[in-house]
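[job 0412] stage=fold_complex status=start
inputs:
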Amino acid sequence: MTLRFLTAGESHGPALIATLDGLPSGLKVDLDSINADLARRQSGSGAGPRMKMEQDRAVILGGLMGGHTTGAPLAMMIENRDHAHWKGISVDPFTIPRPGHADLTGAVKFGYSDLRPALERASARETATRVAVGSVCRQLLANFGIEVGGYVTSIGSVEANLQSIPLQERISIARKSDTGCPDPSASQAMQTLIRETTLAKDTLGGIIEAVAIGLPVGLGSFTQWDKRLEARIGAAILSIQAIKGVEIGPAFENTRHPGTSVQDAIHVENSQLIRPSNRCGGIEGGISNGLPVIVRAAMKPIATTLTPQSSVNLATGEGIDTRYERSDFCPVPRAVVVVESMLAFVLADALLEKLGGDSLSEMRPRYENLKKMRLGD
Amino acid sequence: MTLRFLTAGESHGPALIATLDGLPSGLKVDLDSINADLARRQSGSGAGPRMKMEQDRAVILGGLMGGHTTGAPLAMMIENRDHAHWKGISVDPFTIPRPGHADLTGAVKFGYSDLRPALERASARETATRVAVGSVCRQLLANFGIEVGGYVTSIGSVEANLQSIPLQERISIARKSDTGCPDPSASQAMQTLIRETTLAKDTLGGIIEAVAIGLPVGLGSFTQWDKRLEARIGAAILSIQAIKGVEIGPAFENTRHPGTSVQDAIHVENSQLIRPSNRCGGIEGGISNGLPVIVRAAMKPIATTLTPQSSVNLATGEGIDTRYERSDFCPVPRAVVVVESMLAFVLADALLEKLGGDSLSEMRPRYENLKKMRLGD
Amino acid sequence: MTLRFLTAGESHGPALIATLDGLPSGLKVDLDSINADLARRQSGSGAGPRMKMEQDRAVILGGLMGGHTTGAPLAMMIENRDHAHWKGISVDPFTIPRPGHADLTGAVKFGYSDLRPALERASARETATRVAVGSVCRQLLANFGIEVGGYVTSIGSVEANLQSIPLQERISIARKSDTGCPDPSASQAMQTLIRETTLAKDTLGGIIEAVAIGLPVGLGSFTQWDKRLEARIGAAILSIQAIKGVEIGPAFENTRHPGTSVQDAIHVENSQLIRPSNRCGGIEGGISNGLPVIVRAAMKPIATTLTPQSSVNLATGEGIDTRYERSDFCPVPRAVVVVESMLAFVLADALLEKLGGDSLSEMRPRYENLKKMRLGD
Amino acid sequence: MTLRFLTAGESHGPALIATLDGLPSGLKVDLDSINADLARRQSGSGAGPRMKMEQDRAVILGGLMGGHTTGAPLAMMIENRDHAHWKGISVDPFTIPRPGHADLTGAVKFGYSDLRPALERASARETATRVAVGSVCRQLLANFGIEVGGYVTSIGSVEANLQSIPLQERISIARKSDTGCPDPSASQAMQTLIRETTLAKDTLGGIIEAVAIGLPVGLGSFTQWDKRLEARIGAAILSIQAIKGVEIGPAFENTRHPGTSVQDAIHVENSQLIRPSNRCGGIEGGISNGLPVIVRAAMKPIATTLTPQSSVNLATGEGIDTRYERSDFCPVPRAVVVVESMLAFVLADALLEKLGGDSLSEMRPRYENLKKMRLGD
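[job 0412] stage=fold_complex status=done
writing structure:
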């Protein structure tokens, strides 16, 4: 792996930290864009009251000089603004694990008697650092004309109909939508569903699509199992809290059709190889084929519900209902930017691998000279 | 990663090689089991004529003494029995890429003018080495009472109904079935569909479920993005040729339901924590929770079809139809063991991480002392 | 690798950051010890004026609750106290590379026209984060009775005579010495040499020995090239700024003697295997043998000298002498703790690998049950 | 890491295997060169009788088509020709560990009662695979005008005087010398010493220098600890059996001199930056500076001696002398090619990182455009 990152920090600790190692020098990093992406993670239908308190801002502690990367690792800090409120306050031990969370598995794995450390680190709060990392990767990709975006295709049982909307439009409409869904009528139905579900003290999940447009051919490889682009994307997406399924293009849907109807024919037009369809989600044989990479992520409904669920008090051994911890009702709209971010990270890594190089100025001519889907190349 | 492997070799080269590094010493390796797993990869409905020629046998070149591992890397070779027929024979360059394969992307990435190297290495022939690796991992897991199995849940539009069949039974029925599907009536419908599709010169995909039963709590972690068990399983499964989607439990289905109906309640019975359901697929917060891990993989229909597809002759630039390369019609039954194998690899790796240790005898008492889902632990 | 860390930050940036991932839960982290180690990096004979300005203090931003690790990554920040003085001040571009530094290679590699980014990140200032990381690793090792220490064995041409001083004593004497050298008369000669060399506007290097006492047998492995303990220690030590040579035990000296005189005989005493000598530096066949691990590191004289050296002004192309950048005269005494830290990191990593486990309480009984150098084990 | 390899196999097993993953496509691999390098590992003064039996030949099982790499992993097999003699023959358990070997540490680590598995895998026989790997890396480097060579600088107490012999000449003279030492009078003294030591039933070690000529500037990095070229070279060299010390340039010698006398001044001549000396061994700030990289490796005397050494019979608990296992008397001349090989591997990896790219034809123009040590670049 050329690009790598580690995150650290807890939900109510002083700060979250991300260190992104492996960037080339000469990349102009726009802090406002990072903060705008962080804001996207904090707004949208279905957010709980928690979200109102934080206004995430990234502070860059290393790796930049004069606003440009130097090749050194980028260190970003996001302060937890309500840490001040919690500091020093003693909190009762948390001993009733919530089904679907890391509470119980974390306790058994790490030997916690108070489950708080599991909540604090396993929480989706950590995704703020992913967004900061992904935002920088996105800026790197943008230098090569590659755009990464995303949108919501379903929430609960409400599915969008996006057939007629081009990818780029889906992205731009979604950015302005509270649900993140580019289909206006579905979006309205989603909002109704979210409202009703919230009143019913229940929660919702859904499906997010992230896409990358403008990729070169040749990222990833079939030569060794762990180099396949699907594998690398899959790991990154499934590493996101509450994401439990992923497909490249409509992979599950494709299984229901015969082979001849799910392949993407190859046509020639003016010495250019054209693919009229994209059922493969932009990847063939583990390698990007120049079509948009389309990744679909299944996000489970939030496990923390206002409606109590059966659990146990680990301190006493009694069966008992879960208590409510402040949480979202529907995290799907806010998670779009997280899925985009992890996709951007994988693609930036794969692009750096393909181009090599230690500076943007070294990478640019190499990029220009990449083989294309043209006869003669 | 504690356990790692590399594979090498081409479909029509002299042999395939797998090197599996990181096994503890003292593991009895049963070559017959490996060969039985290799045989499973070669039989089942929908196999093409190619399959008849090979009878894969693993030869162990390193890492074993007296039938037991020594802690040294295990090297396994599977000879390509028809290599003799091909050796020295000159073959016309292959210049018409098949949609859905690595032919075109491989050519652009690696600069091939003859596309054969892409076919040779990207082909599912390579999965034989994965099966050998997975078979050894499975033998390691078996020492700790962990069983990994799998079955087919759908082929094309035919879906099995498995609700009433316990996991272990699904596995054992599937082993005796030509389709790998434990639901007898669905299995029959699948066979009919395969026959019809073959006659129609078309191909089929489907969905495979792999499960691991008897896992301890605590494999994987939420502490860093790349340690989550879902991420690691996802990468391994999506690294398999033709697998383009993966979910842990019924993740895509879960997105359509409200939170309260897709969680797995925690009950107490005789100081034991019981989970009456398993919608989470055995993983909570990135960590195994002791329930069976259930992984669903979407396999696309074979891209090589007897029905020609639109393509181009890269040597001449003319639009032209694909020519048929010997291939399967429905690879799904044969891929079950491959999916199982990659799951077994990830779980063996995670178990070694949890237990540490350099020999089975060092690992065993550690395993006995692991915390369980019991009050007081 | 079980344990991993990334550092970030520049010498005159706001802060240095280290993220240490892979610690077990339940480790009490003593911040005072970390700060004491940081102080050791800042004091000793031969320090330049720069050292007076900083008083490094680590702040922990993540991974601790109630003073104990949780299994989550530990994030540590060390603020650069004089950053305030530099912030916003415009500095002339630095264009005259200093021989022996990263100035010129960094410029060519990353395309800098102003060489400051190379100075900022390549500088030994970064070793403060290594010390913080190593200090935590040392605390982990201490839980298993393993002590890591170090001392200076030579500065310039002055060599200590340590034959008669036991290892543990060498460490404790060195801690109280300005030169870090446990031989009092050599220490005095070193101080004289440092004083003279400073007056002569020159600089000094030397040799540091780091030792680990109380290690179990069995860390590292011969089974694969990159697992040998020598290799892992070698990489860690040679990753330290200005360290260009490393040996395990007196390896270069050993090459001059016949085989029979440099082996460590095996004796039996009361069912215990005893090794009367330790010419192998505590490692045989890539694996720790229970004797103290002894690592010797060659540190080159500081490249920045008050005496000007021939260089070139890259902006103008003129040959020109180097200008002085504030620097040490003899960094050797202050580097002892850095060498110790990197050794502690590798050994903590190898110990975690051997023991596995997610918490100290899981690791402890496993440690007790490790095989020893006893007959019957 | 872009390039990676795993080896497998035991000294008396059927074969040794190396899998080298990450090569670009289009590299012509010359099997004769590999075999010539393998032969160099088998000849030279001081070899024991064992060497006469084997004539190592590499067989390539994967990764080549038409004699050129395809981008797929290269699998190489070296058969153990005397395996046939050993197969099926029952051998008494080996229970008397030899000091200096992996016998005892391996037994404690892996729980062997018969120590043979340690001998079999820890033995220097494994270095044959390193040589095969290194030979291919060397061929890759040669495409970019980079030459890797080596020679012996000392054996026992006999040191060569090489000051007046240019690097390239040292390499070519050494290739024709039985001792691998380019200084004829030292070489003669070495031969005498080897003869005498063999008669005295003792063994010898020595120092090997490996050099790489023609490297571009910019391999390795100071931006993260594990990227420094010294660290990566150090790990590779110290991973070689019996190598216990390594230095970049004369690092230990440099510690004895003041800073001004061990730096390499920068001069300008015709817009070219010139370095009249190379005390830094070709690396500054963790990055190659275009001068030859010079690596010195300390090889300990062979631990297996005809003269018995004190040990213990682990089966009985009795103190007992070691028994002789067939071995070399002085492995130093034969190890030159092993040290070269590991250096070639690291440099090929670092070059691939710098250039990126999936084929030689993609890499070549990138190489031409690298910045050089020229003003204006």
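[job 0412] summary: Chain A touches chain B through 109 residues (CB under 8 Å).
[job 0412] exit 0
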